[in-house]
DNA sequence: GTACAATATGACCGACCGGTCACATCGACC
DNA sequence: GGTCGATGTGACCGGTCGGTCATATTGTAC
């Protein structure tokens, strides 16, 4: 973790360093990111770098923690349509956050993607229950709840479905941004939230309908019942 | 592309070089892969490398083409259950191939994953029809066919669904391998095909049921119709 | 054998890498 | 002013990098 010295730095200088680091990590995977490039871009001496961070991994972890906080911010900035979200509302919310995040902070999203590739632990096994839990366990927990609440079909393999949803959450954002096209700048500038863009919501509806129809216990939710 | 000199090389030496390159590219993203490491591992002089390849990108492209061929081989090695595959049989087949590929050639699969990260063209627009086509267009074409054949619900956004399926196809294999656990070695050694492993097929069934229920036009395919 | 082209080699080049450290500068207190 | 710890600095180190090239070796045709 960053040294005390780093935390004492004037905010402006800290932001300068973080900005340079983010640019470097977004353009290069960690293994080929360059300290020299970062210090040069940030306008600090290399010796200073080593007064702030142990090495480049230290800085990288610091940036990841910033990304994590920013993402929480974005999630919380989305309007909350109900106090307790049902399974699919939750999925829509996190996917929506991923899109908003991708548009507002494309560099951070890029770093996240690099990181996801390096994460070698796809799932872990709960030492108490012996149950396999994919990723960070959010989707796993929500699907389990969904089954208890009769939202999700009982035959669904919860952990595999959780892994699938994480795949979708992690990968769909760049695609949707491409589909949104020229509306992205308005969202990036903060003048528009993706929540209020029609095209985005239509695509979300479509995606959620597919997933909901696939996972839901009650197939009544389908749009068309084989009507010709 | 590799030089004439390279193609004239005795097969044994070519395989040695390709083996070394595959190991390097599987362990490092292209940007941080090392020519020195490859020539050292392959047991050839660096000067020789430059008689065979223009640079490391040239070699990387060559390896990618090998991966592509190997993958086709694996796909064709799977038993063909019907002459013309319906949409979901096709999806199962390519996903199954991805798992078989992951187990038999984990290094090649790793290189593919690195490559997917670098591919910046998520979708292209067909210059004739103006239609957006995701990835290599296989899923897009199959879903389009699926709608024509009444397999797929008409309201499905074909291209987004195609992108989603590609996400799943590209990401599910490592997860399933982890789930299969100690059966992987038997498959890797060629003594068993994932096609004939019960656990694998159960997971595939589950995944296909989810996707089929999500995309299919006829919800009759569902396992349980809200029966308690 | 000779001749000649194709191929193989590794020392060498300049550039960049992560990391160090002696020294310069700053800022707070007396 | 002087003192002293905290902070800033960039030349320098040993290594590795991609890439070159003069030279050595091999294969082939005569």
Question: How would you describe the overall organization of this protein?
Answer:
The structure is a homodimer of 228-residue chains. Chain A has 228 residues and is mostly helical. In chain A, 64% of the residues lie in helices and 3% in strands. The first copy, chain A, has 11 helices and 2 strands; from the N terminus they run αααααααββαααα. A two-stranded antiparallel ribbon of chain A has the order 1-2. In chain A, α5 (56-77) packs across α6. Chain A is globular and about 60 Å long. The interface between A and B is large, with 48 and 49 residues. The structure holds a DNA duplex (30 and 30 nucleotides).
User: What would you call the structural class of chain A?
Assistant: mainly alpha
- Beta-strand residue percentage of chain A: under 5%
What's the helical proportion of residues of chain A?
55-70%
Task: Report the strand count of chain A.
Answer: 2
Overall, the morphology of chain A is globular
Describe the strand arrangement of the main beta sheet of chain A, using strand numbers.
Answer: 1-2
Helical segment tally of chain A? Answer: 11
The chain pair forming the largest interface, with residue counts per chain, is: A-B, 48 and 49 residues
Please state the average pLDDT score of chain A.
86
Element-by-element helix/strand order of chain A: HHHHHHHEEHHHH
